[in-house]
From TrEMBL, chain A:
Its main location: cytoplasm. This is Translation initiation factor eIF2B subunit alpha. Residues 291-300 have a biased composition (Basic and acidic residues). Keywords: Cytoplasm, Initiation factor, Protein biosynthesis. Belongs to the eIF-2B alpha/beta/delta subunits family. GO terms for cellular component: cytosol; eukaryotic translation initiation factor 2B complex. One of its GO terms (molecular function) is translation initiation factor activity. It is found in: Cytoplasm, Cytosol. Gene3D superfamilies: Translation initiation factor eif-2b, domain 2 (3.40.50.10470), Translation initiation factor eIF-2B, N-terminal domain (1.20.120.1070). Residues 291-322 are annotated as: Disordered. InterPro entries: eIF2B_alpha/beta/delta (IPR051501), elF-2B_alpha_N (IPR042528), IF-2B-related (IPR000649), IF_2B-like_C (IPR042529), NagB/RpiA_transferase-like (IPR037171). Component of the translation initiation factor 2B (eIF2B) complex which is a heterodecamer of two sets of five different subunits: alpha, beta, gamma, delta and epsilon. Subunits alpha, beta and delta comprise a regulatory subcomplex and subunits epsilon and gamma comprise a catalytic subcomplex. Within the complex, the hexameric regulatory complex resides at the center, with the two heterodimeric catalytic subcomplexes bound on opposite sides.
TrEMBL record, chain B:
Signal peptide: none annotated. This is Translation initiation factor eIF2B subunit beta. The lineage of its organism: Eukaryota, Fungi, Dikarya, Ascomycota, Pezizomycotina. It is found in: Cytoplasm, Cytosol. One of its GO terms (molecular function) is translation initiation factor activity.
Length: 357, 481
């Protein structure tokens, strides 16, 4: 029966979740992947005519799977879809939690929840952005007058935080920005942040990955963004974050992660190679030619020919190093700054357990 | 720094005595001056004084508007904390009391609206006691810790917060009218902060300032009291004041008993023939060691804590009396460790590293415990902790929950207080002072990773778990006083 109903009344084939997701993501540069995924799922819900809880969950699961399969690195995205799924289960199973003043029957409940979701899709986005601003507003207190902050990547939250700190007239600080020498969206964001900070009269030094250890002596604190915060309190972030964490730890510098709580994802990686994605960073080969990586890189190489390290990197055998991520274990992290406060890494699992069990 | 005779010099005892006769405002001013002059110092004394004062403040509060009561407590709290920002405990107590008021008010709000909604439409058939979130255990819900710093953009931009801040006063509707729209939200089972993105009205953590150990009985008493009162005049204003005062008295009990409760854990941590290293003249640590001494024989290596606490340390070792604590007569009543048959070795601070290789366990007293698991303790603590780390010796910190602060140490230097350099270089050596700078920092910041275990009156906790205890004890809306 469960099998029969969705096919009977689902306009699933006509709705393309992947393109919806991409469109949403492209439409707003400020949007993060989890939120875009939630947005896409809401839209999927709107395009369907499901009327029972089981159907809804099934529909969500199918769309989620399609969505995950379509992206090379679905970790961040799955944080959003998981959250949405848990939310649906939690609300649909507990009708009274809707907050309606009248006692509703189960079907009314379902409709009400659905309507709520459909009508407030934009709200989620706004709220996600608001939480970024909120993080920025108290995260900026971490930056003390005269501090030098080391950061990397193109995290928008970190950008917002630094910008907020720069706007405040009482804090004078310097930023060392680790820029990846490529044209990935990540590094574009980074360049944008650097330009913004300089416009705010904040002295910014940009360095390549290889100069992190060299610069660390001048650094007071490290602030990084994250693609996902995993269950043990570690983070999944742009390749190079792990080494920054290790170096910061060895130099005794505080290492803060800035992430919205919707990036919490239920993964428990123990090492770099436990991530549920296949990154071909390590590519052992006996052949000397760099044809493999060459053809991978040609399209990306064009705009940045003037940047020296790029030439070196393109000779590496690993593929897609620019989009790759690594896992920073929790013992390297001093604190995770979320919109609900500064958490210790061990608090993450508690937050996750609360929605899953 | 130590006041000579307790009765003559202003201090905790004189404050407590005067509190009985003086009206509130002069009392507040008196405490502020005592704090400013450092005539009341040490976490415990500050906590006792603040609690006593707040009990008075609440007791003399006129009117029944709980919003005004909160504002009043806040205002007093702000004055006290700004008088001596480094005595973080003062702020802690104020926040605890504020949380108490909110809790009492929310309980009634819940109960009353439940009552009305029962009458209106039998949507939620439940008995009052079940719907009251305070009854749940300490570990009921978790509201993540916020900063001790201002957050400019606030609840208004963040809607899930708006709901969670139902205790936020400006937004709270009057107490008495029935808020049917509010009730389901506050009694909703769905209280997850990760779901904050979705706008369902959920309230994270409505709860639990567990006023210590005894909370089961006391809470039970409190609730039955509530029920009676509600039965009596379910339509009239309830007495916030009386309940808050009950709560503050519970808090006082907690302060009184926290040392004993901590000491109850001693046998789990101190074993026969161990060598324990400790420092300062902390009553809590002494009681802890004494409790263990009843059953076990061990050796205590006591670090002198020169220059600011060595007199106290000496007198504790010799007589069991701490001159700094002379205000509290009942606190003096323990016997010295050696009377309990414990071998005590006193060493100067400089010997810590040398002797650490023989030590089995380090027990530290603390001034304040911070939300990230770090602590502020008498200077020398960090050196001891670092030496212990180098020798892989476990470091146990003994602290009452009242010392646990929601403050996040953004800037460690701000937390360190500098004392009288005269105790380092006596004034007779005045010429010496002309040639060199003499500094006497009173406190050390010990980072969380140097500590292995915290023992509070609630039991033992890993440093990484402290955020949770903070979340259980302080309301997020109170963190910025």
């Amino acid at each position: 029966m469960d099998v029969a109903t969705p096919t009977a009344e689902n306009p699933l084939p006509s709705f393309d979740i992947v393109s919806t997701y991409r469109r949403i993501l492209a439409s707003d540069p400020d949007l993060t992947m989890p939120v875009a995924a939630i947005e896409a799922l809401v839209e999927a819900l709107a395009h369907s005519s499901v009327s029972t809880i089981a159907e809804t969950l099934q529909l969500l699961e199918r769309h989620t799977n399609i969505l995950k399969a379509s992206t090379p690195n679905p970790i961040s995205l799955s944080a959003g879809t998981d959250l949405f799924q848990r939310y649906m289960i939690a609300t649909l199973n507990r009708p009274t939690s809707l907050g309606g003043s009248v006692h509703l029957g189960p079907s009314d409940d379902f409709r009400a929840i659905r309507n709520h979701l459909l009508s407030s899709g934009k709200l989620f986005v706004e709220r996600a952005k608001a939480s970024r601003e909120k993080i920025a507003s108290f995260g900026k207190h971490f930056i003390r007058d005269g501090a030098t902050v080391l950061t990397n990547g193109g995290s928008r939250v970190v950008g917002a935080l630094l910008r907020r700190a720069a706007e405040s007239s009482t804090i004078r600080f310097r930023v060392i920005y680790v820029l990846s020498p490529s044209t990935s969206s990540d590094s574009r964001e980074g360049h944008q942040t650097v330009a913004d900070l300089r416009a705010h009269n904040v002295p910014v030094a940009t360095i390549p990955d290889s100069a992190v250890a060299y610069s660390l002596g001048k650094v007071d604190m490290v602030i990084v963004g994250a693609e996902g915060v995993v269950e043990n309190g570690g983070i999944i972030s742009r390749l190079g974050t792990y080494q920054m964490g290790l170096l910061a730890k060895s130099k005794g510098k505080p290492f803060y992660v800035v992430a919205e709580s919707h990036k919490f994802v239920r993964l428990y990686p123990l090492s770099q190679f436990d991530l549920p994605i296949d990154q071909k960073i390590l590519d052992f080969t006996v052949s000397d030619d760099d044809k493999v990586s060459g053809e991978q890189k040609t399209s990306e190489d064009e705009g940045v020919a003037d940047l020296n390290p790029e030439e070196a990197r393109s000779k590496c055998s690993g593929k897609n190093v620019d989009d790759a991520v690594d896992f920073t274990p929790p013992d390297l992290i001093s604190g995770i700054i979320t919109e609900s406060g500064v958490l210790t890494p061990s608090a993450v699992s508690e937050e996750l357990i609360k929605i899953w069990f | 720094m130590a006041e000579g005779t307790a009765i003559a010099t202003p201090g905790l005892s004189s404050f407590l005595k005067s509190l009985k006769t003086t009206p509130v405002e002069p009392s507040v001013a008196y405490l502020i001056s005592l704090l400013k002059r450092r005539q009341i110092r040490n976490s415990r004394q500050c906590a006792v004084a603040t609690t006593a004062l707040l009990l008075r403040v609440v007791g003399e509060f006129k009117g029944k508007d709980s919003a005004k009561l909160v504002e009043r407590i806040r205002q007093v709290g702000r004055r006290l904390t700004s008088a001596q920002p480094r005595e973080v405990v003062v702020g802690n107590i104020v926040r605890r009391v504020l949380g108490l008021v909110r809790e009492v008010v929310e309980d009634h709000l819940d109960a009353e609206t439940n009552a009305t909604s029962d009458i209106g439409h039998n949507s939620q058939p439940h008995n009052d006691s079940l719907s009251r979130p305070t009854l749940s255990s300490t570990i009921s819900t978790f509201s993540p810790l916020k900063h001790a710093t201002a957050e400019p953009l606030d609840a208004s931009t963040h809607q899930s917060e708006t709901m969670s801040d139902s205790g936020e006063l400006p937004k709270r509707p009057g107490l008495l009218t029935s808020h049917t729209s509010y009730v389901p939200s506050s009694s909703a089972p769905l209280v997850n902060s990760l779901f904050g993105l979705f706008s369902h009205p959920d309230t994270p953590s409505t709860s639990n300032t567990p006023t210590g150990h005894q909370s089961p009985d006391n809470k039970g008493m409190l609730t039955s009291l509530n029920l009676e009162r509600l039965a009596d005049f379910s339509n009239s204003k309830f007495d916030v004041k009386a309940e808050v005062m009950d709560g503050i008295r519970e808090l006082q009990d907690e302060l009184d008993q926290s040392d004993d409760l901590i000491a109850a854990n001693a046998l789990d941590h101190i074993h026969s023939n161990e060598i324990i290293l400790t420092h300062t003249a902390s009553t809590g640590v002494q009681k802890f060691l004494l409790t263990a001494a009843r059953k076990r024989k061990f050796t205590v290596v006591h670090v002198e804590t020169f220059p600011h606490d060595h007199t106290g340390t000496h007198s504790v070792l010799l007589t069991g009396k701490n001159r700094d604590h002379s205000g509290d007569s009942e606190e003096d009543s323990f016997k010295p460790l050696r009377a309990a048959g414990i071998q005590v070795v006193m060493i100067p601070d400089s010997h810590v590293f040398a002797i650490m290789s023989q030590v089995n366990k380090v027990i530290l007293a603390t001034h304040t415990v911070l939300a990230n698991g770090g602590l502020v303790a008498a200077s020398g603590a960090r050196m001891i902790a670092a030496a212990a780390k180098a020798h892989q010796t476990p470091v146990v910190v003994v602290s009452g929950v009242y010392k646990l602060s929601p403050v996040y140490p953004f800037d460690i230097d701000e937390l360190i207080e500098y004392g009288d350099p005269g105790s380092v270089v006596p004034y007779e050596d005045g010429g010496f002072v002309d040639l060199v700078d003499v500094e006497n920092p009173l406190y050390d910041y010990v980072p969380a990773d140097l500590v292995d275990l915290y023992i509070t009156n609630l039991g033992g906790h890993a440093p990484s778990y402290l955020y949770r205890i903070v979340a259980d004890h302080y309301r997020t809306e109170d963190i910025n006083l």
